[in-house]
Specification:
The protein is an alpha/beta fold. It has two domains: about 270 residues, Alpha/Beta hydrolase fold, catalytic domain (Rossmann fold, 3-Layer(aba) Sandwich); about 90 residues, Immunoglobulin-like, CATH 2.60.40. It is about 25% helix and about 25% strand. The protein is built from nine helices and 19 strands. The strands form four sheets. It has an eight-stranded mixed beta sheet, with helices on both faces. Strands 12, 13, 16, 17 and 18 form a five-stranded antiparallel beta sheet that branches. Strands 10, 11, 14 and 19 form a four-stranded mixed beta sheet that branches. The chain is elongated. The N terminus is likely disordered.
Length: about 400
């Protein structure tokens, strides 16, 4: 190679290296999860040092919710951009704090190290809740692919903390308040399991007993936190059967759960910003977080009542109680023969609410209205303290 070509190659390589270093440096400075050294660390390199990058929303937007984010990568790498920082920034735009975890992984680290790092991240956020502007009882976990497996692991393997621990962080619970599983690896033992993740997590000599122990659909209990799941039916890398298994287990144990399965879409889509269908998963997540009361510090209560129109019970319709806080959940129920009952799980916020009444018409023998009617209440700003509501409307 001529000196000129050599200089050109060297400058090009240096520029590439500089760009890579700059790219790595993008984002908030990492915060050590164990300032005095992580347990079981095999060195002091980056790969030996678990951290979180803290992304906080603007104060005027902050909801008090926080999410610990586990990027995917088959337990062999970390997809920290499209399954990490980009997700944290989307959360920030919605008033939610994001904490992207750089957890230790293969080839140097096996189970239980990734789990311990993520549990520590949850404890860290709770221990620093005031500093970060989050509520300790609204700290969730979100993970993609193998990171989804990790999120499901900490959602099924947790403790309340050690009140006597010398390390103040360890005094806090590592149970997430909620879990968000995005095209997750769930089973390590089923025919549809992701073999590469299992191998990286346990090594070449993994036993069936180990694989079953972290098949997290088998570890769901009534204490598993409320869970949101999204997947695509097309996903060839991690079959949707994983998501279905966890959803089914949550249903069997009475755990609040919501799942969205999109017909099309490959594995690893992240926020799926260019897809009109799959890209909507994050909006459904935002809806779920709001309706599950994770975006506002509010008290909910069941409400029962009656709705009359022109002195007669409304035959068939819906009542919605809309609080002033847009981040707070709405209470709603169907109306039948003028009666409605809103259970606690979708109860109204104990505050001033706007009452919305919609008339569905009759059910037999034929249509009674041309289209859905939205009926207004003149006194539609009401404070629900007795958990009973009577609405008398006139057309």
């Amino acid at each position: 190679m001529s000196p000129r070509l050599l200089r050109s190659w060297f400058c090009g390589a240096l520029s590439w290296f500089t760009l890579q270093m700059a790219a790595f440096a993008v984002g908030p400075e990492p915060t050590l999860l164990w300032p005095n050294g992580a347990p079981g660390a095999q060195g002091t390199d980056e790969s030996d040092t678990p951290v979180v990058r803290v992304y906080l929303p603007e104060k005027q937007k902050a909801t008090g919710a926080g999410v610990v984010i586990c990027p995917g990568g088959g337990y062999g790498i970390l997809a920290t951009d499209h399954e990490g920082s980009q997700v944290a920034k989307w959360l920030n735009r919605n008033g939610i704090a994001g904490f992207v975890v750089r957890y230790r992984h293969a080839p140097k680290y096996r189970h239980p190290t990734p789990m311990q790092d993520t549990q520590r991240a949850i404890r860290h956020v709770r221990a620093n809740a005031k500093k970060y502007g989050v509520a300790a009882n609204r700290v969730g976990v979100l993970g993609f692919s193998a990171g989804g497996h990790l999120a499901s692991t900490v959602a099924t393997h947790f403790d309340a903390g050690d009140a006597q621990a010398a390390d103040l962080v360890d005094r806090h619970s590592c149970r997430p308040s909620f879990a968000v599983l995005c095209y997750p690896v769930i089973s390590m033992s089923a025919p549809y399991s992701h073999k590469g993740s299992g191998k990286n997590l346990f090594g070449n000599d993994v036993t069936q007993e180990q694989l079953v122990s972290l098949s997290n659909d088998l570890n769901v209990t009534k204490d598993t936190p409320p869970t949101f799941i999204f997947h695509t039916a097309e996903d060839p890398g991690v079959p949707v059967d994983n998501a279905v298994a966890f959803f089914t287990a949550c249903r069997q144990h009475g755990v609040p759960v919501e799942m969205h399965v999109y017909q099309d879409g490959p594995h690893g889509v992240g926020l799926a910003p260019g897809d009109a269908a799959v890209g909507g998963w994050k909006d459904r997540l935002h809806d779920w977080l709001r309706q599950s009361a994770f975006l506002a510090d509010v008290q909910r209560a069941p409400v029962t009542g009656t709705v009359n129109v022109d002195g007669k019970p409304l035959r068939w319709g819906m009542v919605t109680l809309v609080p002033e806080n847009p981040n707070a959940p709405r209470g709603w129920a169907m109306i039948s023969h003028g009666k409605f009952s809103i259970p606690a799980n979708r109860g109204a916020v104990v505050a001033k609410n706007r009452v919305e009444i919609r008339n569905f018409g009759s059910v037999e023998p034929g249509p009674t209205i041309d289209d859905l009617e939205v009926l207004a209440d003149e006194n539609s700003a009401l404070l629900f303290e007795a958990n009973e509501l009577t609405v008398d409307l006139k057309k």
